[in-house]
């Protein structure tokens, strides 16, 4: 055995892993042998049964022997493309076949020489009667290698073949020392595989496996996937429930004063409308929490425009009246400024002193707000991450409100709460969370839900359009010219890249040609925050007609006059994210229009998925569909690389969630410190590390 490299940590025991490789693996959360053994392959290719190419369905895996005619590779507008023109002899005739690669593959040119016979294994694409393989493997037909090959996620700087070898080596090295963290009785009750056989099935599938078993592995529906998904859910549940116990261990500093009726009348006097029944119900739930001696831990979820700001203001006003302070943290300056603008007249009517703290403020402005928060002169402070800096302190912080909670990690929320002595916590989200998903991702929080929109809101009419992007832009231009509307165009990327999708600069250029008399501006995340804020201010003031943007506008843009949106290549977004984007329009009483464009063909799987948004405006229905199809990572940005995917077990995933919640409660009831579950405790502690990624 080679000497262990101490700088490479535990992975230094594996051949070929030095400090540099170990650092690249660690950047993806792979720091132990067990981490490598638990990496989830991204797919499997079964070469044992070769179906005729002519019969292969679109999207199916195919393995064919072909003769190469021509190979070329080039960069176009910053994008890499390689193409292989070849011919396959099948059934006494020749079939033309194209192979396509959209990112660089080492040694591709050497293996793709004209005249060679090669074995090609890849996903079939059928477009307009033409056959292609997308990102196929190129192998020697005389030495094709194993008949069942395993694909692995991309780890920057570590080749897929190297990662495959390391995962198998880690599993072999662990051998009998691999500890199964699940109690045998729990495993048997739920019908779960033992850990070692599950990992072996994933990394070293038996060549004798049935076609159905390989298909289950490929789809992420195998018993091994089910076992590892349960492990992840159980660890998350244990971490959430332990976090809740810690958060509620101290008595709060501020509780509500008696006088519910007085608070109701004060709220009515401060806002220019009558709250909905859903808002009153949420306010009652929150005020019940704020009256208890233990800190509130509550999530307020509501669809776009359902009135979460009013509910959070009611809670803040109650805490201020009881002698405390409230701090609101928003993920962007745009949203923080918008909150401050909305709250200012309400606070003025209630006699609450409001302050705004953002990173772009001058030094003197910032110093004044910091001093006001520390002295108690500022009773409600709205800010961005600037609230988390060490110099920001509060005299008597009683309530922390975190908006768009999935954009902040647990550590950031804890930093803000640490500025008070066990303050109450209210987190807000406009991404509706299905009940069972809430158990998994924000399981330490109680949940209040707003499903009733304020009266007068008209959701946008949503249309799906497939085909070339030029047609969608022309249709939008006609609409804008005819109705003289103001609105958005959203693109998946800032500049031309690896994805076959539009970018903001190219879109803005074409739209300026189509709408020469309209004022068109571009905003995205790389633009200086001050310039971005200025562009948004001009848009709100009506000085810009069309704002071409990335998802930087997803939250915090409230312009009632904005009445149209074109989302280009919408297939690159999750359904819930599209629903959030669509929520930037239709915020007034006038009609509005959203055009979803997809580059996929009409009737394709991508188009069918997007049709959900044309069929419904209910965010909870959209979220349920997103959960079923793509898993929680699409809703909350959870890091998925190397982890078991939810999508393959979508139907059963919900049942596993609830089983994991019950199991975590059962384990902690008898062993709160997990002293008798050492392996689970280690995984829970690793889960709690900021670099491990957190959901809430």
Describe this structure as you would to a colleague:
The protein is an alpha/beta fold and 696 residues long. 39% of the residues lie in helices and 19% in strands. The strands form 4 sheets. Strands 10-11-9-12-13-8-14 form a 7-stranded parallel sheet, sandwiched between helices. Strands 15-20-19-16-18-17 form a 6-stranded parallel sheet, sandwiched between helices. The protein has a 5-stranded mixed beta barrel with strand order 2-3-4-6-5. Strand 3 and strand 4 form a beta hairpin. The longest helix is centred in the middle third of the chain and has 25 residues. The radius of gyration is 28 Å and the shape is globular. The N terminus and C terminus are likely disordered.
